[in-house]
Design goal:
The chain has 12 helices and 10 strands. By secondary structure, the protein is of the alpha+beta class. A hairpin with a 2-residue loop joins strand 2 and strand 3. Helix 3 packs antiparallel against helix 7. The chain is globular, with a radius of gyration of 21 Å. The relative contact order is 0.13. The structure holds 2-acetamido-2-deoxy-1-O-phosphono-alpha-D-glucopyranose and magnesium ion.
Length: about 375
Amino acid sequence: MTKPVFDIEEIKEHFNFEGEYTGYYSIHNGHINNTYVLEFNHNGNYRAYLLQQINTYVFTSPDKLMENVVGVTEYLHKIIVENGGDPERETLNVIKTKDGAPYFVSKDNRYWRCYNFITDAYTCQAIENPVVFYNSAVAFGNFQRLLADYPADSLHETIPNFHNTVSRYNDLMEAVKNNIAGRLDSVKEEVKFAQEREADTHVVVDLIAEGKLPMRVTHNDTKLNNVMFDNNTDKGICVIDLDTVMPGSSLYDFGDSIRFGANHAAEDEKDLSLVYLDLNLFEQYCRGYLESAGKSLTKTEIEYLPFSAKLMTFECGMRFLGDYLNGDTYFKIGYPEHNLDRCHTQFALVADIEKKFDEMKAIVSRICSELGIEK
Ligand code: GN1
Ligand code: MG
């Protein structure tokens, strides 16, 4: 086992953990924060906590970030209790420090927070059973519904313009201009691919500016691996990774789920022939999402669901490409070309979505008719 970046004695000084510490393991799901499971023996029973090091390069205001997370999780906790659910399993809960703070700063200046660890549940990186994808859609749809009345203006914008695709495009062009890592010559085609689709980046931004799309409380990072599924039922029990919960469009959440989950290839797959939009998975997700949240969506939101899948995929590809040009300062990488490989899968998926666009529209339309949702 490699040496952990945390000092367990220092961590234990700050939290009231139950039991004797027995060890830890790392979770390698995300590209941003570092996540560990701390294991304890509490009177012979297994007890675990989720420890996370907040990435303060990405989240520059940990206070505001944690104010959002505490606000949202306490709100969810209350509603889940009212609905007769299990608040220890159906939402993350921030474990406060002994001083009552939502995080602490260690001597080596790292920011640490702690959550309940949800047992008897799993996350997945790719879909093997389509029903699980349907279940993830229900989970994200419910999440949106549960937060429908959350006071959106109390939320801080943890990362400004997070899904503003026009500013994401401008950021990419800035990276192209600066060519900090000297990699521009090797990505001319990728840059051209992005430039050819510049017009797409304005569509949702314009609709929002014209008041044609409502602002909701959205998750903004609805990757399949941000849902936990029950080991026994495979139902999506808990939506996790709440760092980017902010006011946004439902299209961001729908589109990002399709981007990540409706294709069978990993985000960094090198064999691009494996990257394509699986229309059956797309249909499963649409069904789960529209069943759980469809009645509260406007006609314009429904109309743009297929487009959002393309847009969020395009945005993510631009971000990976931009980070590659900037010298890999944002996303964690495992090897030098990692961000470029990720960009390639995203752009390949964009191209495939473009080919299947009419079929995607027909699927949304058919499900709406079946569910009696106006479109
Ligand atoms: C990051 O942390 P993680 O891996 O859930 C990123 C998302 C991207 C995603 C791509 C705060 O999410 O926006 O869509 O990688 N999160 C942040 O996999 O930038
Ligand atoms: Mg995240």
